[in-house]
Design a protein that fits this description.
about 450 residues; alpha/beta; Rossmann fold; Ribosomal Protein S5, domain 2; 3 domains; nine-stranded mixed beta sheet; four-stranded mixed beta sheet; about 25% helix; elongated; binds thymidine-5'-diphosphate; binds magnesium ion; Ribosomal_Su5_D2-typ_SF
Length: about 450
């Protein structure tokens, strides 16, 4: 039974309408509606039968190192043959640089790599390669092209092991009149490349743009189609870059990769736990150390607080790198349970290195930094604070306590304030178990 009907789709967000619209009611884009022909087919395949789990043969996926340790780590130990990886991030963050390093590394290990550049000329790629010190590579080919059929022809003639597409939003199929970057073209190009990857067990890296709102431009379906979704992110002002995995059909998503963008290239930072702290001996009012958990990695950060007299009708609350609601909640607990008067105080927070911390495990560190700044007394040196604060002022256990404490001890910290029941098993560091916020304040600040 085949039924054909006309439908119009917004090429920005995928909104469907039975008639043409000038403005999309969903995303507000103008002139974004194009007609799509849908074939609604319902057919029965009599050869299909369900399988018992015992009948299914297990297969070991073959993982290949991308030659970039931090990328391998994020992927869960290398790339699986036949996997399609979507790498996205803001313009200028270093996506093309990362995939060029992968391309060069793989080709140096005997793989044939095709790098399709739809955005940059061969001269621009050459300049980047020179900057990265990439010399002659036997198996590395570049193709400045953005038409799908032309790319398909080259794929058939050179049959690369790995394909890199920079970027998916700039490739289009000339058979269809939809503009490139539209939902239709992105989906079509992705489906074609995924089919090619699966058929011949080739691995594919697709670079994807992100929109102003921070999501991958194009249809959400792109994220569903690919096997792995990676985000490359970092602060424009700092040269640190973090590679995160949002989806991974072949591994966990709780590993991150850390890099530094230098004048001479993208440098891997395998040991990043100390990067965000300056001096563990530092003692200043308002300064507290906290071991934050980024995936499976522990990173020590400084939480800095400044509490000053306010001359404004509504006191200022500026929290850089911390969750606004979470900090306000902690300030409310401090007012109510410790009788601190913050109503006429401006409160500022900052996290070192531009890192963003949203985990409740940082609550205790935030509270101690606030009290320390308010009283103008430094918190103890070489000490970390770990714990979630309940609305009652109690300190609650948190996840990953062992890795946090071990990493703090490894970096030379001598003492850790931890929730009750979390401190017994550590010999390398002195642990102070605390159950209530008032108790912490009393122990450290004598009141
Ligand atoms: P690029 O990989 O072009 O970013 P994307 O593909 O995500 O848009 O890298 C962009 C920035 O990185 C650019 O501003 C120059 C800088 N850069 C370095 O600082 N060092 C280097 O070795 C390279 C290649 C680039
Ligand atoms: Mg680029």
């Amino acid at each position: 039974m085949t039924k054909e009907k006309k439908i119009f789709a917004c090429q920005e967000c995928g909104y469907l309408s039975v008639r043409w619209l000038g403005k999309c009611p969903s995303c507000g884009a103008w002139n974004s509606f194009y007609e799509e022909l849908t074939h609604q087919k319902v057919s029965f395949n009599e050869n299909q039968k369900p399988h018992l789990i015992s009948e299914i043969k297990s297969s070991d996926s073959i993982r290949v190192s991308t030659t970039i340790g931090e990328l391998d780590r994020t992927l869960g130990g290398g790339i699986v043959e036949g996997a399609v990886v979507l790498l996205s991030g803001e313009p200028g963050i270093g996506k093309s640089t990362l995939v060029l390093l992968v391309a060069a590394g793989l080709s140096n290990h005997g793989k044939k790599v095709l790098y399709v550049s739809a955005e940059e000329s061969l001269q621009q790629i050459k300049m980047r390669a020179e900057r990265l010190g990439i010399k002659n590579s036997e198996g590395l080919f570049f193709l400045p092209e953005n038409e799908l059929k032309a790319i398909g022809n080259v794929l058939e003639s050179i049959i690369p092991d790995t394909l890199i597409i920079d970027s998916i939003q700039m490739i289009y199929d000339s058979e269809f009149e939809y503009p490139f970057g539209s939902v239709f073209q992105v989906r079509r190009v992705a489906q074609f490349l995924i089919e090619w990857a699966k058929k011949g067990n080739h691995s594919v890296f697709l670079i994807g743009h992100i929109t102003k709102e921070g999501s991958i431009a194009g249809p959400k379906i792109l994220e569903h189609l690919v096997d792995v979704v990676l985000y490359f992110e970092g602060d424009k002002l700092s040269n640190l870059r973090i590679l995160r995995s949002m989806k991974n059909r072949f591994g966990s998503t709780d590993e991150i990769g850390v890099f530094r963008m230098d004048v001479s290239g993208l440098i891997e930072i395998p040991d990043s736990s100390h990067l965000f702290i300056n001096n563990i001996l530092a003692t200043h009012p308002g300064l507290v150390f906290f071991p934050t958990q980024e995936g499976r990695r522990t990173i020590l950060v400084e939480i800095q607080s400044l509490v000053t007299t306010s001359y404004l009708g509504i006191p200022r609350r500026t929290f850089t790198g911390l969750d606004y609601n979470r900090v306000n909640l902690i300030l409310a607990v401090l007012e109510k349970k410790l009788n601190m008067n913050l109503a006429n105080k401006d409160v500022y927070f900052n996290v070192s290195g531009g890192l963003k911390i949203t985990e409740p495990a940082a609550d205790l560190a935030i509270a101690v930094a606030t009290i320390s700044s308010c009283r103008d007394i430094p918190s103890p040196s070489e000490t970390v604070f770990i714990g979630e604060i309940a609305l009652t002022g109690e300190i609650r256990p948190v996840q990953h306590i062992t890795s946090r404490i071990k990493e703090a001890a490894r970096l030379g910290f001598k003492q850790a304030f931890v929730p009750i029941g979390c401190g017994d098993s550590f010999s390398e560091i002195k642990t102070m178990e605390v159950g209530w916020l008032g108790e912490v304040s009393h122990t450290i600040f004598k009141g």
